[in-house]
């Protein structure tokens, strides 16, 4: 793949010239683009049009000399391609603005990898951090200092003092720490994490960075203390993931009160409903990536217990960084080919 180039009329926004690579990216021939008077915003994904329009208006007003934007193109066949676009003005001999030149690099593969990495980190409960904690031997007073304060503010009050002491001890000797503690998320749920950090001195900046990661260990701790009926309920959910079951039915089947089930999952930080949804989402992902010939996004969503395909698509994208249609399209398309997806 090369670099796409297009020339855009500054008054209408319509594309007047495009090379072969640009046409491949957007999924139209140059003849189709010219005949339909297609503008660059018409090719832009609806969710990216407003940010693209704002930058274009700034360029037209002379507030900026050019701009770069990562945006999605909505192709003729309905598929989506990510492009890294650099836009610069072209002026005539008198200095008047006549055209815009847009240079486009296809970064779809990079965006897919980034999405898959983010999804993997989300599923694993993994996050990383890099905070400036000291400058020239003194505690940091910049915004980075408040990042450390913000991090500590999310820690459960009963665990905050111990973690803060461990971090300051690591800073004082430029060492590291490993500690298990509880955090309280945005929804007020309590989760267990294992935090690991190391102090790294940067001579060029004259400051100490606290670099590390946290990983969600709620499930591990829950398994240690899990009552047998709860274990059997989770095994039932995994085995019968395609069947609908209420908490009352499961509790009665495995000899535990519904209240005890609610209480257990409330204390663990993840509701039973969320646990069921995550399990079904994982099975939906497996079916979308390994489909049968007649599978559609809707049929897979319904098979996995998602009765609202639109809601399923939004939740799926949050977890995996792409839509169900994109996952299915990639699975159904042979290498080097593109194919529409049935909804």
UniProtKB/TrEMBL annotation:
InterPro entries: Homeodomain-like_sf, HTH_AraC, HTH_AraC-typ_CS, PAC, PAS, PAS-assoc_C, PAS-like_dom_sf, PAS_fold_3. It catalyses: ATP + protein L-histidine = ADP + protein N-phospho-L-histidine. The keyword DNA-binding applies. Residues 323-343 are annotated as: Disordered. GO terms for molecular function: DNA-binding transcription factor activity; protein histidine kinase activity; sequence-specific DNA binding. Residues 67-119 form the PAC domain. CDD domains: PAS. Its EC number is 2.7.13.3. Gene3D superfamilies: Homeodomain-like, PAS domain. Residues 231-330 form the HTH araC/xylS-type domain. Residues 13-63 form the PAS domain. It is an enzyme of class 2 (transferase). Keywords: DNA-binding, Kinase, Phosphoprotein, Transcription, Transcription regulation, Transferase. PANTHER family: PAC DOMAIN-CONTAINING PROTEIN, PHYTOCHROME-LIKE PROTEIN CPH1. This is histidine kinase. It comes from Bradyrhizobium oligotrophicum S58.
